[in-house]
Amino acid sequence: MVGLGPGDPGLLCPLARAALASASAVVGYSGYLDLLEPEVLEGREVVSTGMTGEVERAGRAVDLALAGRAVAVVSSGDAGIYAMAGLVLEVLEERGLLERVPCEVVPGVPALAAAAALLGAPLTHDFACVSLSDLLTPWEVIERRLDAAAGADFVLVLYNPRSKRRADHLERALAVIARHRGPDTPVGVVCRAFRPGQRAEIARLADVDCGGVDMQTIVVVGASSSRAAGGRMLTPRGYAGKYDLAGGTRKVRQRLANTRSKA
Amino acid sequence: MVGLGPGDPGLLCPLARAALASASAVVGYSGYLDLLEPEVLEGREVVSTGMTGEVERAGRAVDLALAGRAVAVVSSGDAGIYAMAGLVLEVLEERGLLERVPCEVVPGVPALAAAAALLGAPLTHDFACVSLSDLLTPWEVIERRLDAAAGADFVLVLYNPRSKRRADHLERALAVIARHRGPDTPVGVVCRAFRPGQRAEIARLADVDCGGVDMQTIVVVGASSSRAAGGRMLTPRGYAGKYDLAGGTRKVRQRLANTRSKA
Lengths: 263, 263
Description:
The structure is a homodimer. Chain A is built from ten helices and 14 strands.
C-alpha cells in the first residue's frame, strides 16, 4: 500500500517510487494513477477503477497477490489517512489471509500537509481531521466530532468537504464550528495542492465561498489563536508569549518569573 | 522551511532534497541534521542548535536570508506539523519582514503518517493530534483537548508523549482517554519510525508500558471501532457494514434497503 503524495513528482518519495518499480501490478483509482508520470507505470499491469470502486480494488489486489504477483495498491497523499491501507488489511482479514500475505504500508506526504504548506503554517499546534463524507459515517457523528473539536479549540482539517451530492456539507460544518469561533477566524481553502490547477485562499470564517470547493479540496479552519498575516495562515505555538521573537531571546519578565519561582 | 520526513533517505522527498541542494545555508536542530546523509549537507554552511533552540534557529535563519543567503530551515517529519515553519513566519512578521523575505514551505512525510504505516492503518478515519508538551501550552488545555477528542470518538495521535522532565504525561493522558474507552482499546506505540532503533508495538489501553516512551515516540490510541488484528492496528472506515469484503460486492441487505427506499 503506497502513498503517492499530493501529485507533484517532487513529493513522490523514493521509497514509494521503488515500491512501484518492484511491483508487477499497480492497483488504484484512475484519478490518482493519472497523477503519475507515465514511465512510472510502464511495463506494469495497471488495474484502475472509478472513485467508489475501493472494495473492488482491494479485492482485485488481494487476488493478484494470491496469484503470486507483487502488487502496489496506490492512494494519493498518504496510504493510511482516509486511504486504501485500511481496506486492504480488512479484506485480507475477512478472507483469513492477514497473517499469510506479507504486506507493507509506504507512507506519503498527506493532503493535510500539502495544503498546510501552501497556506503557511496553520498546523503548528493541535489539530483534528474530520471527513465530511457521510457515505460511510452518519452525519450526526460527523457533526458531533466537529462540535467537540471546535469546542476544545483544535485547528480543524476538513477532508471531502463538498461533492455534487453533498453540496451543503461544508456550509453545515462551518455553521457548527462557528458556534465556537468568531467570524474573523481564518479559513484556508486549498484546491489541488501540488497538482495542476492548484489554488490556495484564505478567507474569514464568515465569508468562505463554498461554491468552488470540491472533493479535491482541503479546508483548514483556524483555532482561536490562528491568524492571517501577509497572505499566510498561522497558528502560533506559543513562543511569542515566552520569547522576544525579534531579538531571539527569552523575555525578561519570564526570566524574572522563573527566578522568583525558584526562590 | 523544509520537512525531511521521518529519517529514512527513502522518505526524503525529491523537492526537499532539491531545496537543500539550492540552499547555501542549512539551519536545524542537530538531532535532525544527523539523520541526513552527509553528502546532502556537503559544501553548505550548517547552523545547528540544541533541542530547545528553536527561537534562536529561526532568528539565525532570518539573519542569513537578510544577508542574501538562500536558507533551508529543516524540521524532521513535515515542516509545518508542530515544526519550524510557523516560528520562522512569526519571526519574520515580528521583524516586519513577512512580505519582504520570500519563503516557501516544502511539506514532508509527518511522524504521524510514518507511525501509522508501521502499525497498519489506524488513521483510516477521523483523528486528532495532541502534543503532550506543556512547555508552551498549559496542561489544562491539553487535558481538555484529550477529553473532548476521546469523547467524540476520534483516534488520538499523541506527539511529545514523555520526556525526562514530564515523565508522567503519557500516563495522565491515557487516564483521561480511558474515561471514554474500554481497557481493550488498541494503543500503538512507535519509537523512531523509519530511523535506526525503530520499534512499533500494539498494547491494550489498560496495559501500555509508558517506560520506554520518549520524545521520539508517537502514541496512537484507537477510536471505539479500532481493533488489533494479526499484529496490526486497524480503524475501519465502515465498508464492512455496507459491503461483503470477502466477495467485493455490495451487501444484499444493503441493495434491498436501497431498493426499498427508492420504492
